[in-house]
Amino acid sequence: MKNNLSIIRQQASHKKQRGAALLLGLVFLVILTGLAVTSMREVALDARITGNLIGQKDRFHAAEAGLRDGEYRIAGKLAVEAPGQYPIIPLTRYSDKVAAISRPDAKKECPASLKFDDVCVIDKNPIFAQDFTEAKSYSPDNSNTSFTEIIEWYAIPYFGGASDAASEVPEYGAAAASIGPVRHEINARASDGTNEVRLRSTVVRIYY
């Protein structure tokens, strides 16, 4: 009788041990599953952050290309051999000095029908907020580009105090004769349809 009780107790103890081992196994399985899910989330988050950084970098480069397009169109190029299909600056020489004899005319708007060689200079006062309603599409060589983003730019004349009778050239009558530095504010935007990057720069041409 005692032997039978001992056997029964041993069997019950083995069952309890197996139950405890099963419980521990389930606990470890839950822990491992949680670690795996956390790792997967971290990988997905890293991939998303990397994708966002790459997209931000691409949009920045695209917007910078728009800035360069606007700057080159405002400043022009001094020689036909210079790269890009940008307008040549009309120059005239007086003894040892070279002067530009024309500057871009400001327009009320830059329509879609604006010619490739025309410059998108809008006749309005520079303000902090950028308005791309009348902007010009990026087209440095009058052809398709490798950018997938939508790139636009426009320029605004910046007279640097001329409206307040201020001039950087002290000679009498210089401002009235359009002699001295002339600035244009260039605004550019690159968008992928969801996010965008906006940039701004200033181009200075000196007339004398």
TrEMBL record:
<protein>
    <submittedName>
        <fullName>Type IV pilus assembly protein PilX</fullName>
    </submittedName>
</protein>
<feature type="domain" description="Type 4 fimbrial biogenesis protein PilX N-terminal">
    <location>
        <begin position="18"/>
        <end position="68"/>
    </location>
</feature>
<dbReference type="InterPro" id="IPR025746">
    <property type="entry name" value="PilX_N_dom"/>
</dbReference>
<dbReference type="Pfam" id="PF14341">
    <property type="entry name" value="PilX_N"/>
</dbReference>
